[in-house]
Amino acid sequence: MISIIASLVTNMPVYEYTALDIKGKTVSGIINAESSGTARQKLRASRNFPVSIKEVHDTAAIKAPSSVSIIRYFSRVKPHEVSMMTRQLATLVGAGFPLVSALDTLIPQTRSQVFKKILAKTKDSIVEGNSFARSLSLYPGTFSSLYVNMVRAGETSGALEIVLERLADITEKQQALKHRIRSALAYPVLMSLIGALVLFLLLTFIVPSITSIFADMNQTLPTPTLFLISISNFFKIYWWIVFIMIGLMLLALRMIKKTVKGHYFFDKIKLLLPGFGILTKKLAVARFARTLGSLLENGISMLPALGIVKNIVENVLIADIIEEASQEVGKGQGLGSALAESKIFPDLSIQMIQVGEQSGELEAMLNKIANVFENEVETSVMSMTSLLEPVMILIMGIIVGFIVLSICLPIFEMNQLVR
Q1: Average pLDDT taken over every residue of the chain
Q2: Where are the domains of the chain?
Q3: Distance in angstroms (rounded) separating the CA atoms of residues 58 and 141
């Protein structure tokens, strides 16, 4: 019965309406119904008198959660939009608003049309008799399994507003960390692209015009000059092949990464790379600890919580380790001891988990682990980017110096012959 209701909710047309409530005030929002007439009946049943109703046709982006179309990719709901909605919903529910009324209040304030329609359909699913968690689970591309399970725990325990506050905290902290990392990497990446573009222009257009004067010389050119001329001629004639090769390589890597073995291989490489591997481990541990701590605090038992957490660490190897640890915990072993066998989790995190288990304050200790490793990740990223800048300048200086030297060497030799 629930699946039938879910399919009906997913496929119904969506209407934007303007109506007058019983006090004569103008209200607006979104409602889904089989037809405009049914939508008017629903509004009248809720003691709202419709003034205008208009069907919204742009629903393709939310009909098929598994769709990989370009339209869906560019119209997907952003994480910060979910975070903002969660914070506002927690405030309204905490102030005593019924859940449906709170969603009704948020829908007109939502800027994203796709997210607005998802919230409208979620609200109508709740009105149909589904739970909030069940209604959210219809849209896995927008609401993660972590989100749905924490909402389910909040509904079960009667503390939905507290759970929503914690969800907002989790998503905001994760987004803030990602934003800081991206901001730190933006400058080095931009400088790398500009440097590569400058070198390409030098080798393709500038160097050939300069080295052409050596063609009429009846003397043997130095080896660096010959090497520079060869590279320059290649880029001048076959520059388009270079771009095609880069595009094919990126496409091949993307296709390989989509396979099970390819995904496993790339995730393994991430953990083995010098510097970057340690950073990946710390980031995964921080995400693991933050999520697991929040799930345990909201009354979800250890084994189901580990089953949820393994899907959000974004690394197949670490997910397998968490799965193996879950099996050992199911047999009666402690979480810290089970994770220690993998040799992937840092010793500090294992020790803190074991202390939390012994003291009976595992949830609080997991949150401390998340704070520690998030700070370490941010510090490491800042240190790496501060080192990248001089390294990039040094590499660019060496390449430009080689080009200048290769051009000047034949000139120096000509001056010596003249003397």
Answers
A1: 79
A2: 2-143, 177-284+313-355+377-419
A3: 17
